Amino acid sequence: MKRFFIVMISTLLAAVTPVCAEVSLQTLDNLNSAYQGESNAARRYEAYSKKAQAEGNAYAARLFRATAMAETIHRESFKAAIVALGGQVKEFKLEAVKVGATNENLQAAIKGEAQESETLYPSFVAQAKKDGAKQAVRSFLQAQKVEAGHVNLYKEALDSLDKNIDLPVYVCKVCGNIVNRVPLLLCPVCHEGRNEYQQVQ
């Protein structure tokens, strides 16, 4: 009887104890690379925002501030995934920021966000799926979708730069999605409620 209870307890413990899939070093490296990239992007967009403000481009300045917030949200998401998968956040040095005129900064931002959404993050998603690292997949997918949205917003801002257009900007505090109008019900990226959107001043 005693042996029976020991077996039963062991079985129950095995059932409720989470089993961590072995994640490849490549996925952890990708998460660290993304963490570093988003950290640098946030810093870069903060500098771009100050330049746009100084040049009297209020909407571009607000959009850059919002994007800096979004990249910070992505950075923290990648950090959480690294920790959850048993990895460590690697140390790195922030890159020097080259600031041009606002139109040049918008063009640079479009190029960078497009590269991330079209090439970088899809490759990271594929590797994470191969490894069965669900949290990494979710973080990469959300970032990929949000960065694609950033490309469109930046293109619109560039096209209207000389038209003095000033629109409201909102950021989802969960996934970093940026919109000019809050969704009616749910965020289209992370599916959290519309109350997660914060207006950027």
Structure description:
With 201 residues, this protein is mainly alpha-helical. The chain has a domain of 140 residues: Ferritin, core subunit, four-helix bundle (Ferritin, Up-down Bundle). Strands 2-1-3 form a three-stranded antiparallel beta sheet. A hairpin with a 5-residue loop joins β1 and β2. The longest helix is centred in the first third of the chain and has 30 residues. The protein is globular and about 55 Å long.
- Give the H and E element order: HHHHHEEE
The oligomerization state is single chain
CATH architecture of the domain at 24-163: Up-down Bundle
CATH topology title of the domain at 24-163: Ferritin
**Considering the protein shown, what is the CATH homologous superfamily of the domain at 24-163?**
Ferritin, core subunit, four-helix bundle
What is the 3D form? Answer: globular
Strand content: under 5%
Whole-angstrom Rg: 21 Å
Number of strands: 3
Q: Briefly, what CATH class of the domain at 24-163?
A: Mainly Alpha
Helix vs. strand class: mainly alpha
Unreliable residue runs: 1-21
* N/C terminus separation: 69 Å
Main sheet overview: 3 strands, antiparallel
Helix content: 55-70%
Could you tell me the mean pLDDT? 89
Strand order of the largest sheet: 2-1-3
Provide a count of the helices: 5
